[in-house]
Amino acid sequence: MKMFVPRIAVPLLGCFVAASLAAAHAQARNPQVNPGGSVILEPGQRPVIIHPTVEAMNQFRRQEAHGKACHHNCGGGSANLYYHGGLGGIGVETAPKIYLVLWGSQWTNNDPSGEAQILENFYTGAGSSHWLNSVTQYCQGVASGTITCGSSGQHAGNQAGIYAGVWADTAAAAPSKPSQSQLASEAVNAAAHFGNTSSTSNQTVQYVIATSHGNNASGFGTQYCAWHSSTSSTYGNVAYTNLPYMTDGGASCCANFNGLGPNAGITIVCGHEMGETITDQFPNGGWLDSGGSENGDKCAWISSGQGASAKVTFPNGSSFPVQSLWSNAYNSNAGGCVLSY
After folding, report:
1. What is the DSSP string of 45-69?
2. How many whole angstroms separate alpha carbon 228 and alpha carbon 336?
């Protein structure tokens, strides 16, 4: 697996099977305005959108404070999100479904932080919450460059019951430090397991591939906290997230961030990836800003002021630490990070 270094990464046309894919994935990470964003991790695989570590965002914000970055919207990027045209007409998840995959026999008696249950409880409660509702302002079926959907297009969804199920795929061991292609293959296996074997059935679905304690992909905790991407398959395009065992990342991936507890990173990071996939299902065809940031990237690791990470309560009464998500509509359409919409 070829990991990224801090430079702009531009996907080669030869990595894609069609010009439309190349166009959708042309957005590249600009480290001057986005410490996360779109990068190539593995030749032949689609770009991933990385979730930066706490240290990477802190460094970026220090650069901003000294006038070396974008000078505006210190979550990353200097403008509101805008629509990037979709992939095959799909840019957002209009009726999101999340499937959790606990990948590998390494999960057996190896969950010291109780992350599997925390993830299930979080996904169960997130649908229809005020926290997630900001995604509904974004849409597909509109012109590339659209900033405000209004009543146009098909809007991203936030219905109750987003969580669709879990698969403990523990009959065999997952690869040690799995590569992107191995993670993508597991996402396709999950689509088959859950019976989503057509392009239509995968149009509004995401698969969260969770690895166990001590079995995370290379780069976790030093170069990223998580990432999401998509892959082509006989079942159509499949959206998936690489979700490492978050407490293995310590403070770099939000242990005790903002005093929210040692397990805070579990739900802060998985919520970040969920909101981003809903609004940019097949990167980079959905909603991103001019620097390549998605709605989660722009608000990552805010510790004070507007949009600071906090514990929120979901409609079912459960409470979890989350980060804010970017809203184009906030502050009379100037945009900003919000915990409720």
Report:
1. SPPEEEE--HHHHHHHHHHHHTTSS
2. 23
Averaged pLDDT, 18-24 = 37
Pairwise CA distance, residues 163 & 123, whole Å: 5
d(C-alpha 270, C-alpha 292), whole Å = 20
- pLDDT band at residue 3, thresholds of 50, 70 and 90? very low
Measured distance CA(175)–CA(124) in Å, rounded: 28
| 3 CB neighbour count, 10 Å cutoff | 14
The count of C-alpha atoms lying within 13 angstroms of the C-alpha of 191, restricted to the half-sphere facing its C-beta, is 28
Nearest by Cα to 207 from 97, 122, 304 = 97
Cβ neighbours for 60, distance < 8 A, ≥ 6 positions apart = 35, 52, 69, 74, 76
Contact criterion met (CB below 8 Å) for 325 and 278:
no
Which pLDDT tens digit goes with each residue over 103-143? 999 999 999 999 999 999 999 999 999 999 999 999 999 99
Q: pLDDT value at position 16?
A: 32
The separation between the first and the last C-alpha atoms of the chain, rounded to the nearest angstrom, is 39
Q: Count CB neighbours of 201 within 10 A.
A: 15
Say if residues 187 and 277 touch (Cβ distance below 8 Å).
no
- Percent over 90 (pLDDT), the chain: 82
Q: What pLDDT is attached to residue 37?
A: 86
What type of residue sits at position 279?
T
- The predicted model scores a pTM of 0.89
Neighbours of 192 (CB within 10 A): 12
> What per-residue string of b and e applies to 218-228 under the rule 16 or more CB within 10 Å gives b?
ebbbebbbbbb
Report the distance separating Cα 339 and Cα 307, nearest Å. 6
Identity of the amino acid at 242: N
